[in-house]
Amino acid sequence: MPGPFPFPTPESLNSAISLATAFGLGTLIGVERQYRQRTAGLRTAVLVALGASAFVDLGMRLTGGDGATRIVAYVVSGIGFLGAGVIMKEGMNVRGLNTAATLWCSAAVGAFAGADLPLEACFVTVAVLAGNTLLRPLVNLIDRIPIDESATEATYEVQVTVAPDQSGPARDLLVERLEAAGYPVGAIEVEERGEEAVDVVATLTATTVQASELDAVTSALQARPEVRHATWSAQSGD
Question: Where do the MgtC/SapB/SrpB/YhiD N-terminal domain residues begin and end (predicted)?
């Protein structure tokens, strides 16, 4: 009669190796995230790698390669929901994208380990660590390069402030001046600024502009007696 703790079978030992591999490699990825005090740190990276490994290994044990393939598909889609939880939007800035991508890669490491491909899991781990560490100096170097506004894709807005009863004429004037300068308007909105003023904001269809040309447009608009203030702004694209 078998005891409550049967002797480990080759299959269970194989599962233990897969989980140990996922644990170790997930730890390597998580240490770097923890050191940089990211939202998802050491424990999260390890648990993601372990979970992916366990599910893929279970699929392998139950139905072989076909089962593992189906499990991997679910892991890939399911980890996206977890990654979305670490992405935060603060005003116009979005934080956590790199951490979410790292979690996604941690799941890939676990999936390789669960599929009995430990060498490939190591390759992915090395690539993830290289991306999060070795590329950092290059990113900092690129960020220090002065931006050529004429070559940067962005969303451009031109805004004028007028009295509420002048919003209609201001819309027409704004569209007329921008189109005359060669910048068609994609959308235009009126935003209230209290009882005595409104902002008329035009969004351009162009993704690149000449700053001097928009300066000239806003200067001409500012000279109009009904316009209290005119300005333009740019928001960098993704």
Answer: 19-140
Cα distances from 144 to residues 89, 110, 181, 236, in angstroms, run 24, 36, 32, 16
Is 237's pLDDT higher than 70?
no
> Taken in order 137, 138, 139, 145, is the CA torsion positive or negative?
positive
Do 211 and 112 belong to one domain?
no
Residues 37-47 pLDDT 10s: 877 789 999 99
Domain limits at 105?
Answer: 10-143
CA distances to 102, 140, 188 from 29, rounded to whole Å, are 8, 21, 47
Cα separation values, 65 from 62, 69, 71, 113, 151, Å: 9, 6, 10, 14, 49
Q: Tell me how crowded residue 72 is: count the other CB atoms within 10 A of its CB.
A: 20
- Whether the Cβ atoms of residue 201 and residue 167 lie closer than 8 Å to each other: no
Residues 94 and 120 in one domain: yes
Distance CA(129)–CA(111), nearest Å, equals: 17
Specify whether the CB–CB gap between 110 and 51 falls below 8 A.
Answer: yes
Q: What is the three-class DSSP state of 152? A: coil
Q: Are 200 and 211 in contact (CB under 8 A)?
A: no
Q: Number of folded domains in the chain?
A: 2
Distances (CA, A) of 49 to 106, 177, 187, 224, 229: 5, 57, 46, 63, 55
Distance CA 46, CA 110 (A): 9
pTM (global) more than 0.85: no
Q: Is residue 5 part of a domain?
A: no
Question: Distance between CA atoms of 16 and 137, rounded to whole angstroms?
Answer: 38
